[in-house]
Amino acid sequence: MLVLADVSGSMAEAGKIDVLNRSIATMIRSFADEDTVRGEITVGVVTFGGGVNLHQAPTPATEVVWKDMLPCGRTPLGEALDLVNGLLADENVISRRAFTPTLVLVSDGLPNDEWQGPLERLLASPRGGKTVRLAVGVGQDMDEDAFGVLRAFINDPAIQPVRADEAHLLSRYFSWVTMSVTARVRSNRPNDTSHMSFDELEDLLG
Questions:
Q1: What is the rounded CA–CA span in Å between residue 84 and residue 37?
Q2: Phi and psi dihedrals of 101, rounded to 5?
Q3: How confident is the model at residue 167 (pLDDT cuts 50, 70, 90)?
Q4: Can you spell out the DSSP letters for 143-154?
Q5: Is the pLDDT of residue 38 over 80?
Q6: What CA–CA distance (Å, rounded) separates 194 from 84?
Q7: What is the mean pLDDT of residues 33-61?
Q8: Cα separation of the two ends of the chain
Q9: What is the DSSP letter of 12?
Q10: pTM for this one?
Q11: Which residues have CB under 8 Å from 95's CB, separation 6+?
Q12: d(C-alpha 156, C-alpha 133), whole Å
C-alpha cells in the first residue's frame, strides 16, 4: 500500500502530524506481525508539504524502520500524484504479481498546485486506475471544496472520503485501514474489496 501524506505546515496544528506519525508506525508494526503464506504487505509513504518526497520507499513491513514526518510549507498534491503514478508503473518497485495496491490520501486542506491533470493521468494509467483509493480529511477546517478533491481522488461513488474532525480520530481510521488491508491479504480473492466495512468505519469515527 501507499500513503500520500499531507505534511504541510498546517499539519503541525492540533497535534495532527504527531497522531499521523503514530498511526502509520502502528499500522506498519501490525502489518509486520501479519504471518501469511500469500505474501508480505509492502508499505510506502509519499509526503507532500513544501516539496514532495518518497519518505518511505515501498518496502516489506517487516523491514521498515519508521522515521517521523515533519510538517513544512504548502500542499503540492499534484506533484505527489505524479510521483505515485511513477512508482506504480515501475515493476522494480511494485511487482506485477503484487496485489492491487491500496492508496490512502491524508490531507487537511486544499492543494496549492495543479492537481487535476496529475490525477487524470493516475486514473488513466493501467495500474493507477485499478488501485483501491481511500481518503481522509483531517481537522475542522476541511470544507466542501477540500472534500471535493478527496472525492475526485477516490473516483468511486461506493467509497466516500472520511472526516476526522479531531486529530485523535486518525488513529481509529488507520486501525480500520489496517484491518481492511489485512483482510484482503488473507482472502482467497485479495483484489475483491467487497469485504470492506464502511459501516464499521463510521462506528469507529462516530
A1: 27
A2: -65, 150
A3: confident
A4: -HHHHHHHHHHH
A5: no
A6: 25
A7: 88
A8: 26
A9: G
A10: 0.91
A11: none
A12: 8
Exposure b/e, 157-181, CB count within 10 A at least 16 = b:
eebbbbbbeebebbbbbbbbbbbbb
State the Cα–Cα distance between residues 89 and 130, nearest whole angstrom: 12
Per-residue CA distances from 166 to 72, 149, 190 (Å): 20, 20, 32
In order, the DSSP letters of 64-111 are ---------S---HHHHHHHHHHHHH-TTTS-TTSPPPEEEEEESS--
According to the model, what pLDDT value does residue 197 have?
59
The amino acid that residue 96 corresponds to is R
Most confident of 27-36, 94-103, 115-124: 115-124
The mean pLDDT value for 105-127 works out to 97
Q: How far apart are CA 183 and CA 90, in angstroms?
A: 26
Cell of 118: 496529475
Q: What would the grid cell of residue 170 be?
A: 486518525
CA 138/CA 161 separation, integer angstroms: 11
Tell me if residue 51 falls in helix, strand or coil.
Answer: strand
Whether 98 and 184 have beta carbons less than 8 Å apart is answered as no
Locate 64 and state its grid cell. 521498515
Comparing 15-29, 44-58, 90-104, 146-160, the range with the smallest average pLDDT is: 90-104
Residue with cell 477540500: 146
> How does 73-88 read in b/e, with b if 16+ C-beta sit within 10 Å?
ebbbbbbbbbbbbebb
Nearest alpha-carbon partner for 44 in 1, 97, 86 = 1
Task: Tell me the one-letter amino acid at 63.
Answer: E
Q: Retrieve residue 159's grid coordinates.
A: 467509497
